[in-house]
Amino acid sequence: MKYWFPTNKKKIKEFHQYFQAYDEDFEYGSQLPECLLRNWSKSKKWFLELFEKNIPDIKACKSAKDNSMTLLQATLDIVETETSKENSPNYGLLLLWASLSNAVPVAFWTLAYVLSHPDIHKAVMEGISSVFGKAGKDKIKVSEDDLEKLLLIKWCVLETIRLKAPGVITRKVVKPVEILNYIIPSGDLLMLSPFWLHRNPKYFPEPELFKPERWKKANLEKHSFLDCFMAFGSGKFQCPGRWFALLEVQMCVILILYKYDCSLLDPLPKQSSLHLVGVPQPEGQCRIEYKQRV
Ligand code: HEM
């Protein structure tokens, strides 16, 4: 079975370079005419061609164990039945960008917040040791049961997402709507800022503080977040990767902290003001010292 993701060094480098160019200008590229951003447009074309060429293989790839589908296969299925086959490469690229560009900075910020709060760091490490043992030498598998026992880590990820939520979510109005007695005409662009909403003390007391315990009140078992938590958007176009994102960031944090004793060498960095769409990146360096746990 052919596997579409590049495996040799040269191809991986090429993939990385195009992804960097695409990610760097995504903010502007997704809003401005493509002719104004030649590099962005070139990288987008490269990815669309890559998806176009590989979609038959991606769809044909079968799980070795059972009949389960990958997230990408399920997404392509929906896109093709609900819209048209022509949209598949675009949706594939959207999935690739949305998954990497948000979850990776969330993993970074979660680690940075945990490490910069000694009491929380201590409690997280006690949790990890109680589930997986004290030394970080063995290879571990993280099961759903383990994650349930490590609820504090889930709260840390959610609290990080609250504080580092996307700056804006935009929607073009397609037909006039009435909101709070105002008529919004079609063609207007509506903007909502999860970042600022999450800093409203009415909904999140002491909003600037990293307080994972505020998530105790959320009914996560019933898949609901705290009121006015909007990092994943809402309604029909809400992020379809939200539960997957939580899962992968929790696992990443657990695996790193199980294996290594980590400490921050730099203060928690500011966030870059260049990113409004998606999770903000750190501005400047933030070095982490790590050594294997024994
Ligand atoms: C913590 C990490 C993440 C955050 C904060 C986030 C946030 C968002 C937001 C705000 C939107 C726009 C929602 C709207 O327009 O109403 C979105 C859309 C989307 N996200 Fe995520 N996301 C994250 C991770 C992921 C992951 C891991 C995946 C895939 C595995 C993913 C896939 C998508 C896709 C495909 C869309 C477009 C949905 C559509 O337009 O129909 N996201 N995400």
Automatic annotation (TrEMBL):
Name where it mostly resides. membrane
Q: Where is the signal peptide?
A: none
- Sequence positions that bind heme: C239
GO biological process terms, semicolon-separated? bile acid biosynthetic process; cholesterol homeostasis; sterol metabolic process
GO MF terms on file? heme binding; iron ion binding; oxysterol 7-alpha-hydroxylase activity
- Thylakoid recorded as keyword: no
**Coiled coil residues, start to end:** none
Q: Which domain of life is it from?
A: Eukaryota
Q: Which InterPro entries match?
A: CYP450_sterol_14alpha_dmase (IPR050529), Cyt_P450 (IPR001128), Cyt_P450_E_grp-IV (IPR002403), Cyt_P450_sf (IPR036396)
Which stretches are transmembrane? 94-115
Q: Which UniProt keywords apply?
A: Endoplasmic reticulum, Heme, Iron, Lipid metabolism, Membrane, Metal-binding, Microsome, Steroid metabolism, Transmembrane, Transmembrane helix
| Compartments where found | Microsome membrane
PANTHER family in the record: 24-HYDROXYCHOLESTEROL 7-ALPHA-HYDROXYLASE, CYTOCHROME P450 FAMILY 7
The Swiss-Prot or TrEMBL record describes its family as follows:
Belongs to the cytochrome P450 family.
Mind telling me what this protein is named?
Cytochrome P450 family 39 subfamily A member 1
